[in-house]
Amino acid sequence: MLSWFSNARISTKVLLATGALVVVVAATNYIVFVKLYRGDAKAALAQKADAFTAVADAAKSHASLLVESETYKTEELLTELKQDREAGKPYTESRIFNTIPVIVGLKAAKEAASREDIDFRVPALEPRNPENDPSADQVAGVFRREMLVELRDRVQAGDLSSLSRVNNSTNQVHVMRPIVLDASCMMCHGNAGHKQGDPDGDGIDPLGFPMEGWAEGD
């Protein structure tokens, strides 16, 4: 092959060299284009998903204001919840459940996300609901847990912004936004003895879960 090329006419060598150069340039441009397109596509998907997490956060904050301003008849709803639980009725069917700020936010975003083919979840490192344990997902569970740990570390460092990553094994974009606890969350997630959430001081919140002893800002 080399001897043939050495003995070839100069015009042939020029044509071959030019052709090889065109192929290299085209391949390089293609690789660069694909990388740029992938980067743009990831950014667009992340921005779209981030908008839905922002909706959840805004709805939660609005519902928190309603709770703190005593717009809801909280004492009446708590009494009704207790009666429902004693009657064996699931807490999710009690009226107070749909006034919980984080539930308001999650339901609003989840309904909207389903229309846009976005898989909206609430993964947590210390979940009350086993379905929210990332380990339950055999496909992307490890990836989600690693993202949660990274998100937690960022929040502890004072960064409350959302986090986006691409799972190369599934070719999916994941976006996470931290849920920051406020005063309205303390009824269930605060310390034992909360005047509304745990008046008897047994450390069990109105829904029947052990209180975590978390604080505002966690």
Explain what the structure shows.
- The protein starts with a helix and ends in a 29-residue tail after the last helix.
- The mean pLDDT is 82.
- The relative contact order is 0.10.
- Helix 2 runs antiparallel to helix 4.
- It has a two-stranded antiparallel sheet with strand order 1-2.
- The protein is built from six helices and two strands, in the order H-H-H-H-H-E-E-H.
- It is mainly alpha-helical and 218 residues long.
Summarize the structure.
This protein is mainly α and 218 residues long. Helix content is 52%, strand content 5%.
Q: Encode the helix/strand succession as letters.
A: HHHHHEEH
Shape: elongated
Q: Average pLDDT value?
A: 82
Low-pLDDT ranges: none
Supply the key terms.
single chain; 218 residues; mainly alpha; two-stranded antiparallel sheet; 6 helices; 52% helix; elongated
Task: Please specify the SSE layout and strand pairing.
Elements: H1 2-7, H2 10-68, H3 74-86, H4 101-115, H5 141-156, E1 163-167, E2 172-176, H6 186-189
